[in-house]
Amino acid sequence: MLEKLKLEDVLFLDIETVPQYPDFNQLPENFKTLWARKTERLQPKEENDTAETLYPRAGIYAEFGKIICISAGYFSGKQFRVKSFYGDDERILLEDFSRTLNRSFNTPEKLLCAHNGKEFDFPYISRRLLINDLPLPKILNLQGKKPWEVPHLDTMELWRFGDYKQFTSLALLTAIFDIPSPKDDIDGSQVYHVYWNDKNLERIVKYCQKDTVSVAQILMRYMGLPLIKEENIVVV
Question: Hey, what CATH class is 2-20+64-235 in?
Fold first, then answer.
């Protein structure tokens, strides 16, 4: 598949998500109960964990979290251009992102690419669109599609080579492929604190953009192509 891939047809993505509320006590009562039930099935879990102490993890579930940033990267000539859709109002950023997909990524040859995208990014975006009463863009609507018709690439799935026991992080792949990555940045475990406590969304956006570039760089390595030069990465 990759030997026939045209890079200009691919939109590279990464998303950042957080719980919908700053802490467990601000949840509506019915959602406190629902989250408590959810946490009963979470593994691994420490003996003294409670629904309240586990609430910072709620952001990874579309039913309890929200998207605060989608960073999208695409090739335009020699440049790799990165645009971010972000803000506290999830509906607005999803509307803006959907317009981009419907305008520029709505033909059969277009593809989305993310790391662990098939299990996280793509379904999360789709679920949050529906929760916000927004229609699914064509490229995210998988109803009736056969597996080989799904227009999604997943750099983690490609690395598995059929080994579905294997989980390899984006950070590990950038390390083994010697892909440059900033060291003075946050990681995914800090997003909750940086958003709700530090109120520093701009820092999260930069982190999200970095990961989007890393996804593209990894696909370049898979295809045996040279890495994107730093001077050719443009944030728009």
Answer: alpha beta
Please state, in angstroms and rounded to a whole number, the distance separating the CA atoms of residues 5 and 11.
Answer: 12
Query: What would you measure as the largest C-alpha separation in the chain, in angstroms?
Result: 54
User: Residues with Cβ < 8 Å from 182, sequence gap 6 or more?
Assistant: 210
pLDDT in tens, 171-211: 999 999 999 876 567 888 899 999 999 999 999 999 999 99
For 195, counting Cβ atoms within 10 Å of its Cβ (0-12 exposed, 13-18 middle, 19+ buried), the class is buried
pTM: predicted TM-score of the whole model, two decimal places: 0.95
Q: Is 46 exposed, middle or buried (0-12, 13-18, 19+ CB in 10 A)?
A: exposed
- Which residue has tokens 């609507």? 141
pLDDT digits (tens, 9 = 90+) for 104-139: 999 999 999 999 999 999 999 999 999 999 999 999
- Which amino acid, one-letter code, is at 169? S
Tell me which residue of 60, 76, 14, 59 sits closest to 210, measured CA to CA. Answer: 14
